[in-house]
Design a protein that fits this description.
The complex is a heterotrimer. Chain A is of the alpha/beta class. Chain A is built from 12 helices and 7 strands. In chain C, strand 1 and strand 2 form a beta hairpin. The chains are: A alpha/beta, B alpha+beta, C alpha/beta. The interface between B and C is large, with 46 and 35 residues. The complex binds flavin-adenine dinucleotide (FAD), iron/sulfur cluster (4 copies) and FE2/S2 (inorganic) cluster. Flavin-adenine dinucleotide (FAD) sits at the interface of chains C and B. Chain A: Keywords: Oxidoreductase. Chain A: It comes from Candidatus Heimdallarchaeum endolithica.
């Protein structure tokens, strides 16, 4: 634990995402006062230079890495921080924008929207690279997925980190929370829920409202994509739709695993 | 066992009596399934049901509960207050499952959190009719003679009320005029006819008695286990809904607005990936097949060896709720079928 | 420590203990000496068997099991040897002299020391395995007259990796227990004991153990068991007298949480000490 005189410094950094997770932090009214009294919190905007940071105890990093410049900044943040936490599904797994990478139709759509005079490069800050989750480049000490993150997921980890305690992970899929919420299973009624391959954390909100999970909390560590695909097929989802569902929030992990399965 | 007769027209009054004695819980329909819920409106109660999603375990090992509280002054155990929770509508398998949990939590070393919740619980059982997923005749848990406080067998115009404990008797005594000890020959005939009819309604038998030996002998034949390991989603459903699965995990939470910590227990499952991971990230059960082996050897082999009965009460929850059809029925049948061909070869 | 947990109203009851001494054993492993804060509890400090373990608790971090490394014959304090591997041990390593942790226990079956009286005993440890076996060794030193020949074979990767190296060198010098130490490699060049894996020490005791009346106690990394057991079987040790202590994930320490189950046994209740028959019966033991 930190010594009692030391007030931990928390840096909040944003890369490519919607900033929804940072907003979520600011919106924790009940806890906000304590958040700011137990730690010194600094927000660093995307545009702001990260050079002015010399050391943070905890780096909360939102968004995926989309440019070379971001990658350099990420590496710098890693060097300057004790604990690095990936905040939100984009930072943890790549997020929706990960689809960008493998989607051959991207250029075409881009042209359709912006015309052929504007180039893709003009939009990015520096040279673009395929969107990737943080863990593909640096060591990530803890992941808090969510789109946006849920206060009840972040707080237990945050309260440990500001006391210098490493949080332990115990991965589970949405189905666990779904059962604890007292739902039976949508798959049994032919509704294409992908909860079995998605990280728990949201409290199974969608299945609790009779809506299938679409996977916004990102992939579950022990996801069995082969069996999930077979099950979706069994209840009448065609392969293409099924793959699209699994990839939507699945990021690089889903992509890799699905490739193996299809082979 | 003392047995009384309760006329159906007096049943509502019996329910009100229970409500006076404590918090009443019972089966209600919620969305696509049934569940034991707190009853404020008696009309919500449904006894014509087969199984609830979660059995009685939610009363004694809730999905998530606090066990300890720490602050500057020290640590304090969080043991529930004395209260009376009456659950009506439990089926024989549910009651057998509770007896299995009792053995585990109230054996030589008694779990204080379970103990208090169990003492607070009054179980009023209710007769049932099986569906095709009920396996309790195979596990020997289709009938129950203890483990409940009262048990109701629903017949045409009346209930037979079996008394299983002094708590149960006390409920009867407190409203004696509702119950009659006059059970005549025709009442008995009606009961035995019902009983026979129920016995004949069971569609599924599984050779559970052979499983300890079969599992022992095929334990290392991974091809038999892999057919399930490859399909399993590691979703935890089978353990969470199983009324005899007791595994829990423990987690500390630091409260943000104060210098306090609560230690919580939550239901766990041996099908989850980190169940057996120890220091140095060494994993004793790194794949799904190994984890399912634990589940099924525990349920169908080891427990029989230790207690003479499986740790499965045949409630059919895993049969109903596993999304990919891995359950005591399919697993036992697959193993049983696998040994059939060996026998034929031998006959020649 | 209250060894009969079934007598307690609350077997999860834990007690504050103060760190009265600690030092680094190796680069990642530390020695801790603890004393209960409550004098009433402190009186029962020695109520445990060698081979048993205790559950440590740090509020906000959680609980973790650690083998007791001291001996009940010296009941003034408890000693542990703890390796820093993750969340709990990280938090523990930040504690200093005078800081406290909660402790409950003892748990597990431990070694039945009375049963081994009058017999030969061979103790083999590797790496962290020296921690629980140190309890047995100190116990045997204190009650040496009750036992026949006692041999101690201990291995580590390098001299710097040897836990309790000073203790064991002193033990070697005291000669109450015949002690043989080895290291896989000696980069220091200052090691004047055996060099080679722990099984190379067996030639020192070959032919000197009364196999029919002997016990072997083993603890070490999983790979070590296989080779050591092979040696012992070649020496004609009885399978039920080869005892080993094992590790599993543990959340409760007393048969409730399920995590430590191996087939039908709970490592926390029926173990962590198992014999070689158990191993043959339960393929997943090691
Ligand atoms: C009977 C027994 C005796 C032990 N004796 C010693 C000892 O004398 N010295 C020593 O250094 N270590 C000992 N251990 C191991 C020690 O308990 C683990 O190193 C410790 O729990 C790791 O906790 P952590 O939070 O630091 O690590 P974690 O942050 O949890 O990460 C390290 C790994 O340990 C695993 N782990 C978490 N909790 C437990 C648990 N309760 N039991 C086992 N593994 C767990 C995690 O899954 C992870 O893979 C013993 C274990 C057992 C079961
Ligand atoms: S509804 Fe979805 S999340 Fe719930 S158990 Fe079924 S598959 Fe899992
Ligand atoms: S889509 Fe899935 S992960 Fe996202 S909120 Fe809904 S249930 Fe949770
Ligand atoms: S319910 Fe079925 S898929 Fe889920 S963990 Fe159990 S066996 Fe595996
Ligand atoms: S194993 Fe399946 S059938 Fe048996 S008690 Fe558990 S849920 Fe019911
Ligand atoms: S540690 Fe909980 S059952 Fe053994």
């Amino acid at each position: 634990m930190w010594t009692s005189e030391h007030k931990p410094v928390v840096g909040v950094f944003g890369f490519s995402g919607c900033a929804g997770d940072q907003l979520r932090l600011v919106h924790m009214e009940d806890e906000l006062v304590t958040l700011f009294t137990t730690a010194e919190i600094k927000f660093f905007h995307m545009a702001q230079s990260h050079q002015e940071v010399d050391h943070v105890d905890i780096a909360l990093v939102e968004g995926s890495i989309n440019t070379k410049k971001q990658l350099e900044e990420l590496k710098e943040i890693r060097e300057k921080s004790t604990f690095l936490v990936a905040l939100g599904t984009c930072a943890c797994f790549g997020g929706i924008q990960y689809l960008n990478e493998k989607d051959k139709a991207f250029e075409e759509r881009f042209k359709h929207v912006y015309g052929s005079n504007i180039k893709k490069e003009d939009f990015t800050v520096g040279e673009a690279i395929p969107p990737q989750p943080l863990c593909n480049f640096v060591k990530v000490d803890a992941m808090v997925p969510g789109c946006p993150i849920e206060k009840d997921n972040l707080l237990p980890i945050y309260t440990k980190l500001i006391k210098g305690i490493k949080p332990q992970k115990y991965p589970a899929p949405v189905c666990v929370e779904c059962k604890l919420e007292g739902n039976d299973c949508l798959l049994l009624h032919g509704i294409p829920c992908i909860g079995p391959v998605v990280s728990a954390g949201c409290g199974a909100i969608c299945p609790s409202h009779n809506l299938p999970c679409v996977g916004c909390w990102g992939p579950y560590e022990a996801a069995n994509y082969k069996s999930m695909l077979d099950k979706l097929e069994e209840i009448g989802v065609d392969k293409e739709t099924a793959l699209r569902k699994l990839k939507l929030f699945g990021g690089s992990k889903a992509e890799e695993e699905l490739e193996k399965v299809i082979k | 066992m003392k047995t009384y007769k309760l006329m159906k027209e007096d049943f509502p009054q019996f329910l009100s009596l229970l409500q006076e004695k404590g918090n009443l819980y019972g089966p209600v329909k919620s969305k696509n399934h049934y569940s034991f819920e707190k009853i404020d409106d008696l009309s919500k109660l449904t006894f014509n049901y087969t199984r609830t999603l979660m059995g009685l375990k939610k009363f004694v090992t809730p999905p998530r509960y606090k066990v300890k509280h720490f602050d500057k002054s020290g640590s304090e155990d969080i043991i529930p207050e004395n209260e009376t929770n009456i659950v009506i509508g439990a089926h024989p398998c549910d009651i057998h499952a509770m007896k299995i949990l009792d053995k585990l939590f109230l054996g030589q070393i008694k779990d204080p959190y379970y103990k208090k919740r169990r003492e607070n619980l009054v179980i009023v059982g209710h007769s049932c009719m099986p569906d095709e997923n009920c396996l309790c005749t195979s596990t020997g848990t289709d009938m129950v003679s203890d483990g409940f406080d009262l048990f109701l067998t629903e017949l045409q115009d009346f209930y037979l009320v079996w008394v299983g404990s002094s708590k149960g008797l006390f409920i009867i005594m407190s409203s004696e005029d509702l119950f009659s000890e006059k059970i005549d020959m025709c009442d008995i005939a009606e009961y035995t006819t019902w009983q026979e009819n129920r016995q004949n309604s069971f569609k599924t038998t599984i050779p559970f008695h052979l499983m300890p030996d079969i599992i022992h002998l095929i334990y290392e034949k991974d091809e038999l286990w892999n057919q399930f390991g490859e399909k399993c989603l590691s979703c935890g459903t089978c353990s969470l809904v199983c009324p005899t699965c007791n595994c829990f995990n423990v987690e500390d939470k630091i409260l943000i607005n104060a210098d306090e910590v609560v230690r919580e227990r939550m239901l766990d499952s041996c099908t989850l990936p980190y169940y057996s991971v120890v220091a140095g990230d060494h994993d004793f059960r790194p794949d799904r097949t190994k984890r399912l082996k634990l589940y099924y050897t525990h349920k169908l082999k080891e427990y029989i060896g230790k207690w003479g009965q499986p740790a499965c009460v045949g409630c059919g929850r895993c049969v109903t709720y596993c999304p990919v059809g891995i359950n005591v029925k399919t697993v036992s049948n697959a193993f049983y079928e696998a040994i059939q061909c060996v026998r034929e070869v031998k006959k020649i | 420590m209250i060894s009969d947990r079934s007598k307690l109203e609350n077997p999860y009851e834990d007690h504050l203990a103060t760190i009265i001494d600690y030092r680094d054993l190796t680069s990642d492993t530390r020695y801790y000496k603890l004393k209960f804060v409550d004098p009433e509890i402190q009186k029962h400090t020695g109520d445990y068997r060698p081979g048993q373990f205790a559950m440590f608790s740090i509020p906000g971090v959680g609980e973790a099991p650690f083998s007791i490394s001291s001996t009940p014959t010296r009941p003034a304090f408890l000693e542990f040897g703890i390796r820093k591997v993750g969340s709990f041990t990280d938090a523990l390593f930040k504690k200093k002299e005078g800081d406290t942790v909660y402790i409950r226990g003892p748990y597990g079956n431990g070694f039945d020391m009375e049963r081994m009286e009058g017999k030969d005993i061979v103790i083999v440890s590797g790496g962290l395995g020296a921690v629980p076996l140190r309890s047995v060794l100190l116990y045997l030193e204190d009650k040496r007259e009750l036992y026949n020949n006692v041999f101690f074979l201990n291995g580590a990767r390098t001299p710097d990796d040897m836990l309790f190296k000073e203790d064991f060198l002193a033990m070697h010098a005291r000669e109450i227990i015949e002690t043989h130490l080895t290291v896989d490699k000696d980069p220091t060049g200052e090691w004047n004991h055996n060099v080679g894996v722990v099984t190379t020490l067996f030639e020192k005791i070959n032919g000197r153990v009364d196999n029919d009346n002997a016990y072997a106690l083993i603890c070490g990394p999983p790979v070590m068991y296989k080779f050591v057991i092979k040696e012992l079987l070649e020496m004609d040790f009885s399978k039920k007298n080869i005892l080993m202590t094992l590790e599993r994930r543990m959340k409760c320490g007393q048969g409730h949480c399920g995590h430590c189950a191996i087939h039908g046994v709970y490592t926390c209740l029926d173990g962590p000490v198992f014999n070689f028959w158990d191993y043959e019966r339960m393929v997943e033991l090691i």
